[in-house]
């Protein structure tokens, strides 16, 4: 059986197409798997968000009950304005520089205490900060392209 240059090119083309199909299939599979994991994480986060997590350790006594979360005026928490000022000072910007501001007082199991979740847009980025509602300490922050 003789192979001509034309047959060789056809075989190479078929092999190349098979490799491309396998690679594309792998990328699609990974994207779907990632999306499924992301949805699972979101469901878990929603499930455990705003719950009362009582902790017996005395050092963890600043964990708020759900009834406390609704009372932002409680003297044991810093004010929403103070929490926002802490974040703005961290970025060295003013409130006039930001838009789509959202501030929520929540219990977060991850941080084992009540926090202010502060999110807003600034420039071409979206920011999310977690500020301890008692101490005013910045516990975490995230920045992503808007």
The spatial strand order of the largest sheet comes to 1-2-3-4
> In CATH's first tier, which class of the domain at 49-145 applies?
Alpha Beta
Total beta-strand segments: 4
Give helix % range: 40-55%
Helix vs. strand class = alpha+beta
Please work out how many helical segments DSSP would assign: 3
* Order of secondary-structure elements: HHHEEEE
- In the CATH hierarchy, the third-tier topology of the domain at 49-145 is known as Nuclear Transport Factor 2, Chain: A
Radius of gyration based on Cα positions? 25 Å
The dominant shape is elongated
Description:
The chain is of the alpha+beta class. The protein has a domain at 49-145: Nuclear Transport Factor 2, Chain: A. It is built from three helices and four strands. It has helices at residues 5-48, 66-69, 80-91, and strands at residues 99-108, 113-122, 125-132, 138-145. The protein is elongated, with a radius of gyration of 25 Å. The N and C termini lie far apart (61 Å). The relative contact order is 0.11.
Features:
146 residues; alpha+beta; Nuclear Transport Factor 2, Chain: A; four-stranded antiparallel sheet
Q: What is shown here, in short?
A:
This protein has helices at residues 5-48, 66-69, 80-91, and strands at 99-108, 113-122, 125-132, 138-145. It has 146 residues and is of the alpha+beta class.
Topology at a glance:
Layout: H1 5-48, H2 66-69, H3 80-91, E1 99-108, E2 113-122, E3 125-132, E4 138-145
Antiparallel strand pairs: 1-2, 2-3, 3-4
């Amino acid at each position: 059986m003789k192979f001509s240059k034309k047959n060789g090119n056809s075989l190479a083309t078929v092999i190349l197409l098979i490799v491309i199909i396998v690679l594309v299939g792998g990328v699609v599979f990974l994207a779907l798997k990632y999306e499924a994991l992301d949805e699972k994480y979101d469901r878990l986060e929603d499930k455990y968000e705003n719950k009362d997590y009582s902790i017996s350790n005395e050092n963890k006594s600043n964990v708020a009950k759900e009834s406390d979360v609704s009372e932002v005026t409680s003297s044991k928490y810093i004010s929403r304005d103070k929490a926002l000022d802490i974040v703005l000072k961290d970025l060295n910007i003013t409130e006039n520089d930001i838009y789509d501001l959202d501030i929520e007082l929540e219990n977060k199991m991850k941080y084992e205490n009540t926090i202010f979740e502060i999110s807003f847009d600034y420039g071409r980025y979206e920011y999310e900060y977690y500020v301890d509602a008692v101490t005013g300490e910045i516990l975490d922050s995230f920045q992503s392209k808007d």
